[in-house]
Amino acid sequence: MGFSVVKSFKAEERIAKIVGESNENLESSKRKRNVNKDITSSIGSFAGASTQIGVFLVGAWMCLKGRGITPGMLFVFTNLLNFIIGPIAQLPGVLAKRKAALSLMEKMEKALMEERETENLVEDCTLERSVQINHLTYSYDGKKKVLDDLSFKFDQGKSYAIVGASGCGKSTLLQLLLAGMSGYEGSICYDGTNLRRIKPESLYDTVSTIQQNVFVFNASIRDNVTMFKEFAKEEVDRVIDMAGLRELIREKGEDYLCGENGSGLSGGEKQRISIARALLHNAKLLLVDEATAALDAETSSRVIKAILELKDVTRIVVTHDLDAGSLQKYDSILTLKNGKIIEDGSFDVLMKNKGYFYSLYTVAQ
């Protein structure tokens, strides 16, 4: 679940070290498990052998007493018993391995199909002019188009809101801009360079993201904000205030352990960490996917205000909050419907046109 976060913030080396330590602990646990498994297996083998000996002794007694069992029948029966007990004992393990193997094969097949041609990834990512999408079309199943022939230019330093009904393709568009998925038609260009040729590490230096589903590591609040990098205290304090994290830190402290995937935090607290993390990255392009969905109205307003006041940063914000005060601050609003951009313009212009955006806004009030 945290893979996209690790890649987006280029934290591979630091996370690899943490994972390595966790793996050592895991291997220690596995060693103990194997000891228990061997003991259990020995007990099972002893029970099986005891059963066979018991059957043999009972059969021998019946044979000696003339109870309808001959010595030949006894030996045949004992041998056949081995062919029954052995396969039955192995069957659960065989079935479990088969299920695991099939799942692994499916994952490998999917990964190979989606693998990008690494030798073509030679360009650095720059964003001094614009991000442009041309005839962008995407489908998850090859049938229904989630995005259908989108073309638009996001100018550097401006702010854009993307609105529309659920399932219209808003989040998919952000994923494609971050190279989160392949297999799309059309092109995405950063300053004229096709995204398909841009090196991932260079892209992640340029783009930062705040996702709707936040991943939080089992580490301190500060480490989750800084992604285990070293930053000046003033910089960290600045984004903590901008993201509304100050109260949480005052209550629990910067060294508070967040728990596995943030189990020790509320949804709103995790979202604030994600926002602070992205703001600290100081990227040229900020992609925001429903960042304030889990926040209260006051904190939401403060966070959006901080995002819109960022200088020299292109901001593309997917939002469900059709608040006039916030929407008026965007340079342009894109309205999506059935995977198409059917309207774009400022809040005042779209309201004056009384089109689809006007209907969405009116219903939301």
Layout of helices and strands:
Blueprint: H1 3-8, H2 12-64, H3 71-114, E1 130-139, E2 145-155, E3 159-164, H4 170-177, E4 185-190, E5 193-194, H5 200-206, E6 207-210, H6 221-226, H7 233-242, H8 246-252, H9 267-281, E7 285-289, H10 297-308, E8 314-318, H11 324-327, E9 332-337, E10 340-345, H12 347-353, H13 356-364
Parallel strand pairs: 3-8, 3-9, 6-7, 7-8
Antiparallel strand pairs: 1-2, 1-4, 4-5, 9-10
Helix pairs in contact: 2-3, 7-9
What would you note in describing this structure?
The protein is an alpha/beta fold and 365 residues long. It is 52% helix and 17% strand. The chain has 13 helices and ten strands. It has helices spanning 3-8, 12-64, 71-114, 170-177, 200-206, 221-226, 233-242, 246-252, 267-281, 297-308, 324-327, 347-353, 356-364; strands at 130-139, 145-155, 159-164, 185-190, 193-194, 207-210, 285-289, 314-318, 332-337, 340-345. The strands form two sheets. It has a six-stranded mixed β-sheet, sandwiched between helices. Helix 2 packs antiparallel against helix 3 and helix 7 crosses helix 9. The model has no long low-confidence stretch (mean pLDDT 84).
